[in-house]
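Example protein
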Amino acid sequence: MTAYANRRTLLFLAALTVLLIIVPSGASETAGTMPVDELELAAEQEARELPLYSALPFAGILLSIALFPLFAPHFWHHHYPKVAAGWALIFAVPFIIHDPALGIYEVLHIVLADYLPFIILLWGLFAVSGGILLRGSLVGTPALNTQLLLVGTLLASWMGTTGASMLLIRPVIRANAARKNKAHIVIFFIFLVSNIGGALTPLGDPPLFLGFLHGVPFFWTLHITPHFLLTAVLVLAIFFVLDTLLYKRENKIPTERIEAAERYPLRIEGMHNFLFLGGILAAVLMSGTWHPGVSITIYHVHLGLQNLLRDAAILLMGYLSVRTTHPKVRQDNDFTWEPIREVAFLFIGIFVTIIPLLMMLRAGESGAMGALIKAVKEPAHYFWITGLLSSFLDNAPTYLTFFNTALGRLGMTEAEMSRILRGVIEHPEHAIFIEYLKGVSAGAVFFGANTYIGNAPNFMVRSIAEGAGVKMPSFFGYMLWSVAILIPVFIVVTVVFF
């Protein structure tokens, strides 16, 4: 992408952050507004009354993502931002006309409080990791590929699934440039590095970070280490067997490529970007631990000072990375801005059209999805229902919905839960809540691998792979892989742990 487009992307994200800071409280309020308490009551009432068909625009954007690349790839490549905007407007316009105050609030809330922090974090990690180049020759044998996936899986919990994915996907693709069959390598990369690997800390995946913000101790998620190990080992073993079979059917890697690997040992360029990566992770951790009690309110949407500073710090880290990394490093890394551009446009459509589904979930047993929520009673139910919904919906609010369902079922408050998990107080339902929370946590993280939209890195990895010439499966083609490989693994995990 051109330097002009690069500057335009930076200016766009910077302008959004500045807007959040300079707009004064109440500046967006119009004649259609109402007091906060009345607005919250209206939101609760609307959530209980929303019919299932209000989710049709969300189904529409999913089908567009799945079918247009198959049947109209040229149109999709040039017009996917318009398609995403069209589905968002199909939902948002009638919703706002039906109830202007509530409609504006819900759309602004998901854009300002959820989408912007989401895309800023992804942009920052994408920009910084794109400046780290693993130089040298790698030969994509089954053993090496398995080692790379293992390293990425272990890194994901500590630098985020997005950070680990963006750091390693290009070296993995380059290592396998001479392979005939390589789509499966990227698919398993998404399974492991972009999803399963993020299960051990709140830094790994957004739903776990959300749990941390609601009182779950930082290191509590290490309780699902056995679930993580079993899942990762099974998926890695399947990959090694499959990659070995495919490797044996291919022609051998050219001798000159093996000789090149011996002549050009591995080295890392752009090492200073690890400082910026650390700055991003520190900013994320700061926003979850420092609560100054200061916020800016835009049309009843409260934006905490710590979150605004986090977003500004992430933008700064990304900007410094772009400015201080030699352009040749990014060029040799096959870096372009198109993957993050695609995610930004498609996910704004997804976030807006997902509003009615999230409202139905918030309504609990009183909403259109009440029967589903009533059916969730056992740890295995929490694992599968949280997981299946996280495969298609935003896994962070899905996690929070069933986290609160578990608290409500056992009559706990968040404060009691936090003290229980820290061992400060005893509770008769302590053991069962631990199992519920394990199910919610593992389901929200693991099942994100089931679809391209289950977790944002999935989409970016696919886009980077396609840009490098790897023929990736379609939306439903990818799901055939995930159903065939991951669902049996999740069944084993259920039998062993739940």
Remarks:
- Residues 3-497 form one domain.
